User: Fold this.
Amino acid sequence: MTERRLSPSIRRATAAWLLVAQSLFASAAAQAPPAEQPARVEAAFVRNFARYVSWPTRAFAGEHSPWLVCVLGNDPLDAVLESTLQGRTEQGRAFQVVRAARLEQLPPCQIVVVDFPHAAQRRAALSELSRRPVLTVGRAPEFLDEGGIVRLITGERIEMSINLDQARAASLTIPAKMLEVSREVLENGTLRRWR
Assistant:
């Protein structure tokens, strides 16, 4: 990524997106018990990925097919994810959450949360998903290096890092406004601290 000055309109759009995201995430966190707060914020991130990331048409079975958000492994996020996405739509599509212990048990998904405890399991799943139009999401510190696209980082607040190289390989378009609010971006094989 090259250093560049942002136009005033892009800065305003980015600031507006940040305010909306912070408001949404603060609202979700305020309604959840303390133990659930990070999971609710992560679920809100997943929902927003459907709004901002662009998938190729071939990623969907049909014009009105639902978003298939799949949880691979034993992720505790799945129950919160289901309640967060229930009754919601994005770009005219409803959400459906699917869980599986193994990749071959999943239908064609647009978003896959990969939560295997062992690196070998994650790498195998991510390798299999790498050329499909699938946004992979995980929390492992090595997630981007293993071939994942979005790593969620839990701390005082939830942050994300993005593997732009892998997103491009999967035919996904990550908008600049998502990159601008990311902690790190992996592009052209180099991980750069973004903010």
Remarks:
- Strands lie at 67-73, 89-90, 93-100, 111-115, 135-138, 150-154, 158-163, 184-187, 190-193.
- The first strand starts at residue 67 and ends at 73.
- Confidence is low (pLDDT under 50) at residues 1-6, 9-35.
- The CA atoms of residues 18 and 107 lie 33 Å apart.
